Model the fold of this input.
Amino acid sequence: MEISDTIALVTGAGSGLGEATARRLAGLGAKVAVMDLSEAAAARVADQIGGIAVAADVADSAAVEAAFATVAAQLGTPRIVVNCAGIGTAARILPRDGALPIDAFERTLRVNLLGSYVVLSHAAKAMSAADPLDADGARGVIVNTASVAYQDGQIGQAAYAASKGGIASLTLPAARELARWGIRVMTIAPGLFETAMSAGLPPDVRKTLEAGLPFPSRMGRPGEYAMLVQQIIENPLLNGEVIRLDSAVRLAPK
Done:
């Protein structure tokens, strides 16, 4: 699919992987809607890349529907939708204090898994009603974000790993169902990346983490995630698959 002059919507685009993706797509000529829970963060990025800002909680179907309506009215139907919104949580199933983190588990699944599904659903509805873009009948591409934790979940990552595992498992059945409308669905599973979640790591912890990365032995850069998004969009045969982007790392139990 051509990126230039195509309408794209990126969630979680006020920072991190989403921001890098929004910037890359805009740099390639796309008209980008920057969606984020923070209206200020979305506006900051949108102003800098010449896009539009929409604020929404991805797990709120009504808010996401309203956001898609705003994008349709101002830009048109998004043909590229990238799900980067998400939260990271760390909590043991059986903490020492005996307080079971059920609420934290529920919130993590709500934001990461339900949020991705809600955005995917509204994206599919909008794309399916649009005209095909090429001779293959392509109408759009949806890229979700999992994590290597869906396969290598560490101690304390039960909620996070479960939420990302759900996103990974969703990929193939979604791609198969939406194929009749020419909509592709892909998922990227990043490893250790330079994001807000890793920015506060102590130098010694960071050094230990990077030492476990086979090659390159450094954290990924958000722009490298965005590069893979571009490649997925442009390659029509990439569909229904989860791609690990991780320097060949396999996370240890803790």
Observations:
- The chain has one domain: 7-193+221-243.
- The domain at 7-193+221-243 is CATH 3.40.50.720 (Rossmann fold).
